[in-house]
Amino acid sequence: MGGETLTLEAELIEMMEGRANFYRLLARVFRKEVDAEFLEALAGQTQLLAALRGISRKGQSLLKDFLRQISAVQMESVVNDLTVEYADLFLGTGRSQGRSALPYASVYLGRDKSLMEEPYVQIRRFYQRAGFQAAAGSSELEDHVASVLEFLGHLAAGTSCSIAGGDRATAREQLSSQAEFLDKHVLTWVPAFCRDTSRHASSGFYKAFALLTAAFAKADRAVVEEASLELGGDE
């Protein structure tokens, strides 16, 4: 029985760390423009790229095709094109052409569809209750999609630490917070943001990550529920 418990805990720790790392990757994609170093590192992550098939086959296919086309000669041009696309999509420079997907909860859920409305306030309060602070150097608002994804990574990492420390009660509380945050502050608008990104993006890169983000967030809600049930047994 003890061995089974250790195996379960090891599996859950691995799961939580995997979730944390993937949320951090997604946050990085939407936080700022990508550079050559990021793209080259991503192209070298063969295990990750293979695993993406389990999240979204179309998203994986688009991303692999995009990365396959990159060469040392093309890299500067690719980065420049992605920089322009990032500005069009997420900074609003493409808004007049109907090509933007502003990455804020308030824009999707607020009464006036403008920045720093009630959804922003609610998310900020959630962070404060959890004792969360954005990474050093981060300048985006708390309801920016990158902040939201980073927060989920933070919670997943904390859950991993609680399980490793044998504190199942805290781990269950942390999973409950993740379920609540996903229900109230992620699944309510991130899928729509991802649809807009996918529709307006010109590159396979942002189309792929839009599909992967939406699919992962939806599937992760069930993962959180399952993990909580797994931890619900006798201490």
Summary, kept brief:
The protein is 71% helix and 0% strand. By secondary structure, it is an all-alpha fold. The chain has one domain (2-230): Orthogonal Bundle (TorD-like), CATH 1.10.3480.
- Please state the second-level CATH architecture: Orthogonal Bundle
CATH topology: TorD-like
The major β-sheet equals:
none
Order of helices and strands: HHHHHHHHHHH
- Which segments are poorly predicted (pLDDT under 50) over 5 or more consecutive residues? none
CATH superfamily: TorD-like
Which class in CATH terms? Mainly Alpha
**Number of separate domains:** 1
Number of strands: 0
* Helix proportion range: over 70%
Q: How widely separated are the two ends?
A: 12 Å
- Beta-strand proportion: under 5%
Query: Mean pLDDT, rounded to whole units?
Result: 93
Structural class: mainly alpha
Task: Say what oligomer this is.
Answer: single chain
Write down the Rg: 18 Å
Could you characterize what this model shows?
The chain is an all-alpha fold. The protein has one domain: TorD-like, CATH 1.10.3480.10. Helix content is 71%, strand content 0%. The protein is built from 11 helices and no strands. Helix 4 packs across helix 11 and helix 8 runs antiparallel to helix 9. The model has no long low-confidence stretch (mean pLDDT 93).
